[in-house]
Amino acid sequence: MEPVSDAIVYIVDDDAGVREALAWLLRSRRLFSESFDSAEAFDAMRQAHPGLCQPCCLLLDVRMPGMSGLALFDVLLARGELPAMPVIFLTGHADVPTAVDAVKRGAFDFYEKPFSDNALVDRIEQALAQSAARLEQVRQRNSLQARLHDLTERERDVMDLVVAGLPNKLIADQLEISVRTVEVHRARVFDKMQVKSAVELANLLRTGP
Length: 209
Fold this sequence. Notes:
This protein has 9 helices and 5 strands; from the N terminus they run βαβαβαβαβααααα. The chain has helices at about 15-30, 40-50, 70-80, 95-105, 115-150, 155-165, 170-175, 180-195, 200-205, and strands at about 10, 30-35, 55-60, 85-90, 110. The protein has a 5-stranded parallel sheet with strand order 2-1-3-4-5, with helices on both faces. Helix 6 packs across helix 8 (about 180-195) and helix 7 (about 170-175) crosses helix 8 (about 180-195). The two termini are about 30 Å apart.
């Protein structure tokens, strides 16, 4: 799998040795990381920098002093930060059932300590690919919403009838405007929506918000 560009792996673990080992492992695979020694520290960072603008994933220890990894996961889940930021739990043997339950609720995966370095990094790269795909979906949806917002009310009326398959003459009759006016609005709709045909417009709206 090709590495995802401009990606970051967040490491949240109270054990400094684990954080350092994971950071070294990721560097060996040319992956950038940022480490936090507590769930509270990571949550504070996320609240200070809301929104996700680059592919990322979170390596999260299940059991930590203070806020547990599972409690942090629930916070991220409630804030809607998944699946754009996939969570991979790092667990001890006793925490495996908890991690399995978290996967059922939306976590990306879990690895029991000690884990295979190569298997973990391969899974991290898959998580980063999912994050990148999700962020691209969000970008496309936001772009489409912005284009739709730029349409006038009359252009929306014409667009709806174009997508319904009506020819210009019937659109003109239904909206009680001239065919020439329909042609002008139709051209503006295509320009604003960045499409070249009614079929392309219909497909864009079908896959949009």
